[in-house]
Amino acid sequence: MNLPRFLVIPLTLALVACGASSGDAEQSESPFKELEGASPNAVPATPAVGATATPSTPAAAAPAAAAACPAQGFDDFLKAYARDAQTKTRFTLPTVKVVDLVDVGEDTQQRTEQVPGKDYTGFNLAYRDDGFHVVDSAGAVDPKPVAVEVKAEPADAYFVRYQYGMSEGNSYRFVKQEGCWFLAEDPEPSAP
Asked: What is the pTM of this model?
C-alpha cells in the first residue's frame, strides 16, 4: 500500500488509538514501509502532542472537561452545578483557592489557602424549581429561596455571591476552561 507520506503518521496514530495490536500490523503492510531506508533527513514517526502513544492507555484518562458541559450559558450551568453532586465534583478544579478569617490575638485576619477540590465543601447552594437555597452544615436545605448575584468577569469567568439573613453569605468564582466553567475560588471569607 503506497500512501502519501503526510498520511502515514495520522493513520498510524489512529490505528494506535483504536487499539490495533502488533499482530494486526503483521497481517498488513507496515505503515512505515515507505520510510524504511529513507534519508537521514526524513521526518521521524513521532506522535503528535497530546496524542495517545500506547494502545494500553485507557480512554478514561482524557480530561474531565471532555465530558459535555451541562449548559451553554452560565446561568443554566450554575443551576445544574447547584442541583447535582456529580456535576459539582466534575466541574470543580483540582485545587480551590479559599479565603477565610483566622483569629490572630484579638484581631481577625484573612488567610488564603489551597484546598483540594475533592475536599472542598464550601459550596452551600442547592437549586430547586423555585430558585437557589442555602444548605446548612448538617445538609438541611432552607425552604426559602435566596437571591444570588452573578457578575461576569474578564475571560468568561463569573463571580457569584449571595447574602443569607442579615450577615451570612458566601461567594464563588468560576473560570472557563476547555469549553465549560469550573469552580476555582471561594474568594471572600464567609460571613460568620
From this structure: 0.63
